[in-house]
Amino acid sequence: MNQAAVIKTVQAPLAEGDWLPGLQAALTALAAFSGGTPAQAAATWDEATGLMVNLACLWPDAVPALPALNAMACLPTAPKPKQAADRVLRRLLNAYTLSLRDPTALPPVLVADWPAVRQVYNQIAAVQAVMHQWRLEPEAPNVQATLYGPVAVSTKELLATVGVKASFEPMAQPWATGFQGRAMTPVVVGEKSRDGRAGVGQQQEVLARAKALQLRHFPRTKRPAFVRQEQPTLYHEGSVQDYTVFDLEFSSGNVHEGMFITEIGAVKVRAGHIVDTFNVFVKVPAKHRLNVYSQRVTGIHEATLKTYGLPADQAARQFIDFIGSDVLLGFSMHGGDLPVLRRQFDLYPTAGRLIDVAQLAKRVGPMPGTPEVSLTRYRHYLGLSLLAHGALYDAVTTHALYAYLEGHPVAPEALVAEFEQVFARSLKGAPHDQN
Fold first, then answer.
1. Which CATH superfamily is domain 200-427 in?
2. Which residues are CB-contacts of 290 (< 8 A; sequence separation ≥ 6)?
3. SS3 labels along 312-373
4. Hey, what's the signal peptide range on this chain (predicted)?
5. Average pLDDT for residues 143-152, to the nearest whole number?
6. What CA–CA distances, in Å, run from 211 to 63, 205, 304?
């Protein structure tokens, strides 16, 4: 079957009544065209379980059998009447690739087979790109795809055949302890993950920590990391062993709520070890209010900030002095931390003092394997028993991620114990050795 015939079959509208044969035909044609195994193409429908599709038919022949890698994807409801077959298949493939992005959802038995798992992921991602390319108008730019890690030769040939502009990047070796999932079950389209809201325990922890924090004083820095002068953001080049990692929690809402910092957290690192911590909560600016979403996600309530928060200018000054002359690490700072510092305080980072760990992660395509990364995923992957959506704890996670990317990962239990010990000294206002 030539490409034109495959496109016609794959994009054909499904019959209103007996739609399953059309979907089966599309899956079989797609498997044959993509270098898979058409004989394994199987789509079944049951009112109780929904549409079940075996995606192993799309795997390249070069990939060995992977019994622990469940190839089934499920669509709980029947396709819409006359919906094109490729629209249904793309939904199934998208859900499946999402399930393979995060090793924390994969069973430990797959650690040894990780190169083959990545080949499967890249093949399925390539098939998605092919179906996308087929949907474009002739004058539209070709689809661009970046695949991380091992890619089968047949996968590269598939992308070239349809004109997808593909680039291939190396991928960091996965950390074996990151594989924490149970035996894989069929991947369900539209299955939602936990909503990420702070539970009662996290709210109580925030309040207890806010009560315990002591006002600390640091020498006025002569080389501040942020200045009140607009300038381009220039990042630090090269690796560092001594640095400060920071993270902000902030409220971002409508004109009455505004964008303002609610918590600042930072850890100072020397030779790969945490030697000091910084943590403050920040009062809500006058004529503003903390939006409900921020309170639900972080567990930081407006009453807590009113009672235990520092005035914003004082908190920012302490934070800058704590950093001193260090190189400053953060995670995806362009997405929120730098804009809120600019908007609230008119502060701009000093040239050459920043390292964005999220950018480093994207370059090597680590754990999730695509640019869409999050600290929550990395926290699970690195095995850190820390709360999410807390500035201080996210700073620790960013430190752990940087160490992992630099090739000297820290045992999670040892890192958490070190952090807790240093943070306890900070609460007592005890001096810290930062040399």
1. Ribonuclease H-like superfamily/Ribonuclease H (3.30.420.10)
2. 251, 257, 262, 284, 300, 301, 302, 305
3. HHHHHHHHHHHHCCCCEEECCHHHCHHHHHHHHHCCEECCCCEEEHHHHHHHHCCCCCCCCC
4. none
5. 92
6. 56, 10, 9
DSSP-assigned beta bridge partners for residue 310: 282
Q: How does DSSP classify residue 282? A: B
Q: Judging by DSSP bridges, how do beta strands 328-330 and 243-252 pair with one another? A: parallel
Contacts of 126 by beta carbon, 8 Å cutoff, 6+ apart? 34, 145, 147, 155, 158, 159, 164, 166
The tens digit of pLDDT for each residue in 48-89 reads 999 999 999 999 888 888 999 999 999 999 999 899 999 999
Two tokens, residue 408: 């000297």
The arithmetic mean of pLDDT across residues 412-424, rounded, is 95
- Give SS3 for 72: strand
Measured CA distances, 223 to 166, 209, 321, 327 (Å): 44, 30, 9, 11
Backbone angles phi, psi at 143, to 5 degrees: -65, 140
Examine the pLDDT at 373 and tell me if it is beyond 80.
no
| 82-94 per-position pLDDT tens digit | 999 999 999 999 9
Q: What are phi and psi of 320, to 5 degrees?
A: -65, -40
The values of phi and psi at residue 252, to 5°, are: -135, 110
Domain with CATH 3.30.420.10 in the chain: 200-427
Burial zone of 139 (CB within 10 Å; 0-12 exposed, 13-18 middle, 19+ buried):
exposed
pLDDT, residue 369, reads: 47
pTM: 0.79
114-135 and 3-10 helices cross at what angle (nearest 10)? Answer: 90
Helix (H) / strand (E) element for 53: namely strand 50-54
> What is the Cα–Cα distance from 261 to 317, expressed in whole angstroms?
13
What token pair was written down for 262? 């609610």
The pLDDT of residue 123 is 96
Q: Which two tokens stand for residue 248?
A: 């902000």
Residue 256 and residue 291 in contact, taking contact as beta carbons nearer than 8 Å: no
Please determine, for residue 196, whether its predicted confidence score (pLDDT) is greater than 80.
no
Output DSSP code: residue 389.
S
> Is residue 215 pLDDT above 70, yes or no?
yes
